[in-house]
């Protein structure tokens, strides 16, 4: 008997497979198609000749832990203890999975805000716990009245994501104040904050839970080097939490992966000496603006994009098809792959919206836009 009877092949895998089979431009799955920084490539080449190929401590490569602590302080003015409050993980997905597996018990309830990344639900179900899906507002801001109504004595965790995948929404100051008020009323509630796109924000800059002193000691914050440094295939991220939580998370981590790829950890540790994450927003803003300009003459309606490297568009004026069928036809007839937004809702809510990834080189974006303007 399946422990995840309703889980099938993910929409990301499905659309990427169709893109390959139809020789389509893949703007579906969220990965860049341009080269990594040459400085990082040189660091990897040099380190490959050194003794960095054996097991590392469970929590991570000590020099990297220290660099992460410095990055957090430089970015958010928060002091964290490298030895006890940081855990290097095999990507953000493993950080999310391990956190939920470690902290959620049978019959607990976990609130997920829809539309949401599909990796939040499965580990919750594997804990024999219950997911409570609460829809965001029409503009994808959190609806605090609905969220509070969803809280019961069994509620253990709230999962949030800003900058938001799939919509690109960034929370505003009043949202964080409402969050703090909520946590003051419910002292047993934990926060899991997915901030993998933290350095990819545009006109409105990202605000992190790292900066919220009132709730940081009840929060697990997940970050991704894969997203920040265009190395999604490396599968390396990290989480930050107070010691009483990381202690429990590490217990599960050691039996899942024990430790993360040693060469990758050493390389990123060295790379953080020369990398400048503050430039990442400008880099992707140029791509966002270029892609949006290319689509101005199309029949798609472009929704706001405040962060991440995803652009959501409406095709309501083009077709009455459901978004899954429209995405499939977009691949087979026009050679461009996208992701239907209904896949991010528990009930499959279809608003005739699809998501494109613009983390591509300009040549790819220009050819994709040329095809999309023919739709």
From TrEMBL:
> GO CC terms on record?
cytoplasm
Keyword set includes Transport: no
UniProt domain Aminotransferase class I/classII large: residue ranges:
24-372
Please report a single Pfam family linked to this protein. Answer: Aminotran_1_2
The source's superkingdom equals Bacteria
GO function terms (MF aspect): kynurenine-oxoglutarate transaminase activity; pyridoxal phosphate binding
- Family matches, as InterPro entries: Aminotransferase_I/II_large, Kynurenine-oxoglutarate_AT, PyrdxlP-dep_Trfase, PyrdxlP-dep_Trfase_major, PyrdxlP-dep_Trfase_small
Q: Does the keyword Transferase apply?
A: yes
CDD domains per the UniProt record, alphabetical:
AAT_like
Q: Which cofactor does it need?
A: pyridoxal 5'-phosphate
Question: What are the protein's UniProt keywords?
Answer: Aminotransferase, Pyridoxal phosphate, Transferase
Give the stretches traversing the membrane. none
Q: Which family does it belong to?
A: Belongs to the class-I pyridoxal-phosphate-dependent aminotransferase family.
Q: What is this protein called?
A: Methionine aminotransferase
């Amino acid at each position: 008997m399946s422990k995840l009877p309703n889980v099938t092949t993910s929409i990301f895998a499905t659309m990427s497979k169709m893109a390959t089979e139809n020789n389509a431009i893949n703007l579906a799955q969220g990965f860049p198609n341009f080269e990594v920084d040459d400085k990082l490539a040189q660091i990897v080449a040099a380190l490959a000749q050194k003794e960095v190929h054996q097991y590392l401590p469970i929590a991570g490569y000590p020099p990297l832990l220290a660099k992460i602590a410095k990055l957090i302080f430089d970015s958010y003015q928060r002091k964290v203890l490298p030895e006890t409050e940081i855990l290097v993980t095999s990507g953000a997905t493993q950080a999310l999975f391990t956190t939920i597996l470690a902290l959620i018990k049978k019959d607990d309830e976990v609130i997920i805000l829809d539309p949401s990344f599909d990796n939040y639900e499965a580990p919750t179900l594997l804990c024999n716990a219950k997911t409570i899906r609460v829809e965001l507002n029409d503009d994808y801001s959190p609806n605090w009245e609905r969220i509070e109504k969803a809280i019961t004595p069994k509620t253990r965790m709230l999962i949030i994501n800003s900058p938001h995948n799939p919509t690109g929404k960034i929370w505003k100051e009043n949202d964080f104040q409402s969050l703090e008020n909520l946590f003051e009323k419910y002292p047993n509630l934990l926060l899991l904050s997915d901030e993998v796109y933290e350095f990819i924000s545009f006109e409105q800059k990202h605000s992190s839970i790292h900066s919220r002193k009132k709730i940081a000691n009840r929060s697990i914050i997940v970050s991704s080097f894969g997203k920040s440094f265009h190395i999604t295939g490396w599968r390396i991220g990290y989480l930050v939490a107070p010691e009483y939580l990381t202690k429990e998370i590490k217990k599960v981590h050691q039996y899942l992966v024990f430790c993360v790829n040693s060469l990758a950890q050493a390389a990123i540790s060295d790379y953080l000496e020369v990398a400048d994450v503050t430039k990442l927003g400008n880099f992707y803003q140029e791509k966002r603006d270029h892609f949006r300009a290319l689509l101005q003459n199309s029949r798609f309606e472009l929704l706001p994009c405040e962060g991440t490297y995803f652009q959501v568009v409406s095709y309501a004026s083009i077709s009455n098809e459901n978004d899954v069928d429209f995405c499939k036809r977009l691949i087979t007839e026009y050679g461009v792959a996208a992701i239907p937004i209904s896949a991010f809702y528990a009930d499959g809510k279809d608003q005739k919206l699809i998501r494109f990834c613009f983390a591509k080189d300009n040549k790819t974006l220009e050819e994709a836009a040329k095809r999309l303007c023919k739709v």
